[in-house]
Amino acid sequence: MSAPEAPRPAGAPETFDCRVAFAEELIALARADSRIVAVCNDSVGSSNLGAFQKEFPDRLVNVGIAEQNMVGVGAGLANAGLIPFVCAAAPFLTGRATEQIKADCAYSQYPVVLCGMSPGMAYGELGPTHHSIEDFAWMRAISELTVMAPADPQETRQAVRWAATAGKPVFMRVGRFKIPAVNRPGDSFLPGKIGTLREGSDVTLAAIGTMVSRALEAADLLAARGVSARVLNVSTLKPLDEETILRAARETGRIVTVEEAINVGGLGGAVAETVAQHHPVPMRILGVPGFAPTGDTQFLLDHFGLNAKGIVEAALALLGKGAH
Amino acid sequence: MTAPPHALNLVEAEASGPASYPAPLAAVAPPSFEKTGDPAALAEIARQVRIKIVRTIAQAGLGHVGGDLSVTDILTTLYFGVLNVDPATPAKPDRDRFILSKGHCAAAFYSVLSLRGFFDPAAVDTFMKPLAALNGHPNRRKIPGVEANTGPLGHGLPIGVGTAVGAAITGQDWRTFVVLGDGELQEGSNWEAAMAAGHRKLANLTIIVDRNRFQQGAGTEATNTLEPLADKFRAFGWEAIDVDGHDMTALLRVLAARGTDRPRAVIAKTYKGRGVSFMEDRVEWHHKVPSAEQVEIALKELSL
């Protein structure tokens, strides 16, 4: 989909396509537990299920290009005692099958793991039909559905492993856009808890998924200007870890949220709902303002200020300092 | 890798669910009728089911009486003549799966489940009362014997394809039955599922279409043509069988038979409002509620 990548500049961190970690972990789980099955919509390639299909041909249910049926089939497989990972490009999984996710998975409480592949603006040049910027807002509005966006390969593995035994429906983003690792080996992943990646006292940068590494970068730039920024990795968007958000509001007094998603109803909305009701503080909500123009993912993220520079500017604005 | 992450729980509020949920109905009540292979006995049970439906709708002041009465003989035959289910262990792993895709016909479903012994028939009197377990559409988390929370149309068949594929993957021989309204076949999701079931040759899957020829506001053929319905299923790789949906002998024979190499679509010709003269085959009884006087007439007719 994207142009061949330029070689990594010296000193730049290695970056990862989280679908690789996802597939490896799913195969490891499937080897240990015969109940693990994968369901997809003709997306064996884009969901990176080729190796799974090769090893477990009878446990890969490809329903063809039919997302409503795909999610209903997932609920039925869960009814039959299996643990289905339902994989499809995030815009089609969440948009086409919203009612099946609501009624068949969440309201019926069937433990289906809904894997939104290539979310956000991963399909950059393909345009807004193929962008999944609405998924956070849509999925967050569904009661009793856990919503996750692991921030790097390590967290992706841990989220996959957790979701398989969670016994409840889970939606998770599985990123295609390459990102650096943000967690250290051995860091514990707490489902439902926000990870504090960096302590700070002047402002909080709360980020999710692809934006976490950029928030860390921004914190470095802010430190060079004498600003102490706390960085939160909100890998579970719902249920939101309100305690950590409110502690950040109390202790830093300002919050910038950053997400590769529409800037309504997602992470920014969730944090605002929490602080507005319990401890109001000034906020900036960074996200995608609307349907994107043409461009590759990196271009679009920069275009919308979803990078270290944009985060720094928002934080300085909250602090009443100019960017220059 | 760190400590096993699956040992951790999400925050309490999410795990316990909304506080507005009532306690689920207690499972198990003595069955009012035993399972039987006798069509005359099934017809008698169906008569009792119809009486219960009319009383339930009258008491609730809400419901879908027309479709309830058209699907009654199908549900009665399934639960009292065909399905391998056990009210004492509603979740036994080898049970047959039954999904009522036309979830709005919950009054008929609850009446049949309760008379079969899944819960106390007296509980059906709470149908649609505030905070009752018996919602206007079935909820598996509140009602023993319900497999899926249906209501929005076009959901039951995809779920049934999933249960049938699940049985095939795990090598189990229990069957899946899905009852659909005819009007809901206008939902595209059914045809996604029909295509997948045909492709996978799911011989363990049987659907019964309650073909009463009416949807909410008008006839199906006047709204969005379904015919030739049996041929449509055949074209999707199914075996399609037409049957009189009020003939217990025919229903018993057709539903007890298992498919051999493909899914089965039983097109059950029925009448909306069946069993009550002034409701029968009349579209306005889709969700009209009978007056006290009409209830009296209906119960008298059903008691003859």
Structural overview:
The complex is a heterodimer of chains A (324) and B (304). With 324 residues, chain A is α/β, with parallel strands linked by helices. Chain A folds into two domains: 15-180, Rossmann fold, CATH 3.40.50; 195-318, Rossmann fold. Chain A has helices spanning 18-32, 50-55, 67-79, 90-96, 98-107, 135-140, 153-165, 212-224, 242-252, 267-278, 297-303, 308-318, and strands at 15-16, 36-40, 60-62, 83-89, 113-117, 146-148, 170-174, 179-180, 195-198, 203-207, 229-233, 236-238, 255-262, 283-288. Chain A has a seven-stranded mixed β-sheet, sandwiched between helices. In chain A, strand 2 (36-40), helix 2 (50-55) and strand 3 form a beta-alpha-beta unit. Chain A is globular, with a radius of gyration of 19 Å. In chain A, 57% of the residues are buried. Chain B is of the alpha/beta class. Chain B has one domain (36-303): Rossmann fold (3-Layer(aba) Sandwich), CATH 3.40.50.970. Helix content of chain B is 38%, strand content 10%. Chain B contains ten helices and five strands. Chain B has helices spanning 12-16, 39-60, 65-82, 106-116, 156-170, 188-199, 220-223, 229-235, 248-256, 292-303; strands at 97-100, 176-181, 205-211, 239-244, 264-269. A five-stranded parallel β-sheet of chain B has the order 1-2-3-5-4, sandwiched between helices. In chain B, helix 3 crosses helix 9 (248-256). Chain B is globular, with a radius of gyration of 19 Å.
Indicate the low-confidence ranges of chain B by residue numbers.
1-20
Total helices of chain A: the number is 12
CATH topology of chain B: Rossmann fold
CATH topology of the largest domain in chain A: Rossmann fold
- Overall, the morphology of chain A is globular
Largest sheet: number of strands, sense, barrel closure of chain A = 7 strands, mixed
The helix/strand order of chain B is: HHHEHHEHEHHEHEH
Cα radius of gyration of chain A in angstroms: 19 Å
Largest sheet of chain B: 5 strands, parallel
Q: What proportion of the residues of chain B is helical, as a percent range?
A: 25-40%
Number of helices of chain B: 10
Mean pLDDT of chain B equals 91
Q: Give the count of structural domains of chain A.
A: 2
- Derived from helix and strand composition plus strand pairing, the structural class of chain B reads alpha/beta
Q: How many angstroms separate the termini of chain A?
A: 37 Å
Find the biggest chain interface.
A-B, 53 and 49 residues
CATH superfamily of chain B: Thiamin diphosphate (ThDP)-binding fold, Pyr/PP domains
What's the count of strands of chain A? Answer: 14
Number of domains of chain B: 1
| Total beta strand runs of chain B | 5
